[in-house]
Each structure stands twice: as C-alpha cells, then as structure tokens.
Amino acid sequence: MATRKIVKLGDDALRKVCKPQEKFGIRLNLLLKDMADTMYKAEGVGLAAPQVGILRRVVVIDVGDGLVELVNPEITAVSEDTQCGREGCLSLPGRQGVVTRPMAVKVRAQDRNGDWFEFEAEGFFARAVCHELDHLDGRLYIDVMDRELTEEEIGGHIPEDDLPENCADEEEEEAGEDTEA
Question: Is residue 87 in a domain?
Fold first, then answer.
C-alpha cells in the first residue's frame, strides 16, 4: 500500500486547472492505485489528482459501492432537482460546509486503459462526482458552498439535515411563506 501526501488549502495545485491525461500505462495505473490507497487511509470518499500534487484530470471515488476510477471525466448533463448537504474535503481538514449540488449527473470518462464509458450518478454519489470534478478545474467546495459550518455544527445536528433532498424547492417555499405573512 503506497500513499501520497494530501496537499492542503494554500497549495497552488488546488487552484490550477488540470491537463488531460494523455498517456495510459503503468504510471497512470500506479497513480490510480496510490490515490485509492491514500483516499482509503484518510477515510475519504473521493480524491482528485491535484490533491496529491498531480495536475492531471484523474479522480477516484468510493461512496461504499466499490472503487470508481475516472480519467478525463466530464459531466455531460445535470438534473434540475438539487440536493443540499454537508461536504468536507481531505485538503481542508476540520472544515465542513453546506453545498447545493445536482441530484443526478451524467458523466463521460475514460478508464485506466483509455476506453471511454458513460454512467449516471445519483444522490451522494452525484455529490461526490461533482465535488471531485470541481477539483480538476481548481474549484473547492468552499467556493460554491451555501454556508460554512461552525465547530459545534460539524459535530452535531444542523437545520439542513432536516430538509428534504431537494433543498432548493424547500427554501423557495419557505421564502414564499415569509413574504406572504
């Protein structure tokens, strides 16, 4: 098991747009294995190459259904329905925020051999895909979050935990109720 150092907020690699992965071979296979080992050791659900200082469009994700490796991934469609919830990041230890993301996404990517494939992700898997692909364009969840959680909220219950999955609709309804009163 080989792990790599996870870079932290402030490292320039986290703010760069990554280049496409053009070579498929032993070096990519090693990178994918090291990234998976690093993610599992850090108890994360996803890791993007810039988080280990490599400016290539490579991501690993495991939300509990097995490892997914994505090379040169791109989101080709997003659902109108949204979800909001907690997000953290291995590059921002000790911090969390509430982020609104699409409920579902369609993705096109290459595997470790360079073969193209497509899949759909929903719920937490869609959230993880969006989060990791943001890294490939130099974006972090703190750039798109609705709000940052306090230390007390990180360890406990937050109002967003009670919202239905489509939090944007719920917030619009609540806003409408407030203006009518």
Answer: yes
pTM of the model as a whole = 0.89
41 inside domain = yes
Q: Record the tokens describing residue 146, joined without a space.
A: 């609705």
Per the residue annotation, which of 69, 87, 132, 160 is the catalytic one?
Answer: 132
Task: Give 122: exposed, middle or buried? Use CB within 10 Å, 0-12, 13-18, 19+.
Answer: middle
Above pLDDT 70, what percent of the chain? 89
Name the 3-class secondary structure at 171: helix
pLDDT in tens, 130-155: 999 999 999 999 999 999 999 999 98
Whether residue 118 lies in the annotated active site: no
The range of the structural domain enclosing residue 69 comes to 12-180
